[in-house]
């Protein structure tokens, strides 16, 4: 992970970025020549500051979003690293899933730290049992899977809830959306694994008029609050045509994931944070 | 409080009024200079040889609507003519996905109302619907493409409410992509062919995605001069 990977990411997002950049984004027009004039150690911070200024969002507001994301990624990375380090927790057949997920969470930590530079928060100390709520999380695979599922679904909701704060920001919003989608892939895969163990669960968040938490674990209700919403942008999805008849409430719930506010996410993860 | 649907309708209305005032007809719609001179979003139009997605947020929503039309039509066909050897579990999952994609399609149609592009005519002649490998391979391609399309277009959205809606849909598409990949090869839900070394999913511009989508359309192709797609 280094700065040049970040530059690569930008070029992947938009190969013609330099050509089509608008005048008010002049700040990043000649990024390469700018880079050569800055001491290497100071580059990541200066670089990210440039991105943020170019899109009319204050550095502090964008950094707040990124540090919030980084804190969640620290927790996820720690959770998977600890799980993989336990010899008898994850069955051999499932190890590949977790190796993949852990690799991404560690990559997200490294990526966000690079973008934030010296503004990056450091990792909290974690208690994966959440003060005893999940006492056997690192010894009982079913508990581990359940907590993994909740972390991923919550992560998806957390990123989704921050998108509006990055409106129009080609670099940071796009990267956040790219991470958001990876977390959703993880959530689907962990749910798929849980289903393979006999748990009644789908890769997507389901529910009913009375069920917003489809995991069967009441302790994680807060992570699923509002997930059974069926009205989107003023449109009641259950009034729309389906292949036959109208859209079922189940399909209406499953076809849209819901965001969570930063405060709601912090309240969910706070039992996992010691300091 | 206005709904998003009303917002979109009024945006389209403003554009139509502008055009009438300017004395321009539909044929002029494709002119780039006309687009650039008008700060209002404009609605979709159909010319002799293409379907114009419009401009501004309407263009992005029509872009999403077009992709959802393709995905919905694909899964409707998959559910109607199940591939050889399909399991009960696979059938249930693919039927769920069909229902999600149809809901997405109908949502965009309702939200765009008078600004929506017409129904497109898919061409899936390259897909063998009786063959599991062909169907799941196509599903994987559609889902991965859909995810990267939403990721790559997100920053183009100007209205924060539309961005939020796109966010609500794209994670469901990513859940689909993950599941389809695991059906093809367990554990391949987010492998290095689709996620890069920084742990980032794909992001493709409309200029990259529309030509791919057009290969699955018979008849009129998609265009969006406002996005540099002709």
Describe it.
The complex is a heterodimer of chains A (275) and B (230). With 275 residues, chain A is an all-alpha fold. Chain A has a domain at 57-204 and 261-272: Ferritin (Up-down Bundle). Chain A has helices at 3-13, 17-20, 31-36, 43-54, 59-85, 95-116, 141-162, 170-196, 221-224, 249-254, 262-269, and strands at residues 231-232, 235-236. A two-stranded antiparallel ribbon of chain A has the order 1-2. In chain A, β1 (231-232) and β2 form a beta hairpin. The longest helix of chain A is centred in the N-terminal third of the chain and has 27 residues, at 59-85. Chain A is globular. Chain B is mostly helical. Chain B has one domain (4-227): Ferritin, core subunit, four-helix bundle (Ferritin). Chain B has seven helices and three strands, in the order ααββαααααβ. Chain B has helices spanning 4-22, 32-37, 56-80, 88-112, 132-153, 160-184, 206-214, and strands spanning 45-46, 50-52, 221-223. Chain B has a three-stranded mixed β-sheet. The longest helix of chain B has 25 residues, at 56-80. Chain B is globular, with a radius of gyration of 18 Å. The model of chain B is unreliable at 12-39 (pLDDT under 50). The chains are: A mainly alpha (275), B mainly alpha (230). Chains A and B meet through α1, α6, α8 and α10 of A and α1, α4, α5 and α6 of B. Chain A: Pfam families: Ferritin_2. Chain A: This is Ferritin-like domain-containing protein. Chain A: InterPro entries: Ferritin-like_SF. Chain B: It comes from Mucilaginibacter polytrichastri. Chain B: This is Ferritin-like domain-containing protein. Chain B: Pfam families: Ferritin_2.
